[in-house]
Amino acid sequence: MVDLHTHSTASDGTFTPAELVHAGLAADLSVLALTDHDTVGGIPEFLAAGEGASIVLVAGVEVSTRLHASPIHILGLFIDHHDSDLLALLRQIRANRRLRNRMMLRHLSGQGIELSMEEVEACADSTLICRSHIAQALVARGICDHPQAAFDRYLGRGKPAYCTLDLPMANHAIEAIHRAGGLAVWAHPTGLNKRQKSKLVRMAQQLKAMGLDGLEAYYPYYTAEQVIQVQESARKCGLLVSGGSDFHGGRSPGISLGVGKGNLHIPLSLYATLATAASRSD
Questions:
Q1: Where does the pLDDT of residue 128 fall: very low under 50, low under 70, confident under 90, or very high at 90 and above?
Q2: Can you tell me the distance from the alpha carbon of 236 to that of 239, in angstroms, rounded to the nearest whole number?
C-alpha cells in the first residue's frame, strides 16, 4: 500500500513523525510520505525512524497557496527539506498564520469570547497553530461541543471570526518545490465544494503552465465519480496522478493510513511513476 499525504504533530496531526512511521509499518505500507502543513520540521525524525525498516519514506510538505483568489494546497513530494528557498517560503507562511491567529482571537473577543493564545497553544503539539487548534480551545473552554461546531459557528469561511490567510501565489510554491528537487502536486483538487470538472481542468491548465506536475486523484473523501473526474482531468492536462489519506491521527476520525475510509487503493505503480519523474527532475 502507498500513502503520499499524511500529517504529524509537526503541524496538526496527533502522531509524532516517528509514531507515523511505526503506524505505517504496522499497516504494512510499502511507501509513506510525510506532508505537514507549511513545515518540514518533522522530516528529520520521520526519516530517522525509518532507517533500516521495510518501508520507503518520502520527504514532503503541503504548502498553503492561492491561485488568484482561490486558496489551494500544493504538495511537494521528494523534496530536499534543507533547501533554503523552500524554508524561507514556509517561514513566511507560518508568520502569516500567526498574524491570522491573533486576528481571529480579536474577532472572537468581538463576539464576547475572550480566548488567549496560551489556551490555543495548549491544544497544539507543535509550534504551527492552525484554526483546528483554536477550535479545540473553544471545545476545551466549553463554548462548543466539538471542533466542527466551532467551525460552523465561528471559524469557517464567512463566519464571525474567520479571517483570510495571506498566502503566496501558487507559482511561487511550485517554483520553490522544484528548486528543492521535488514534484508539485495539487492536493484534493475537487475542493470542499466539489469543483466541477470544467473548472478543475481550467485551473489545472493554469497551474501546469506554472510548472505543476500532478493532481491528487486518490483521496478518501472523493466519491468514485470524483476519482475518475480527477484522473481524466490529469490525462487531459498531461499531468501525473498522486494520492493519499490526508491522515491526521485522532483529528481525522474514520481515516486510516493507506486505506482512508477503506475506499483508498493507491497502486504501487503510481509511486514508481512519480519517483521516476522526480529522479529525472534532479
A1: confident
A2: 8
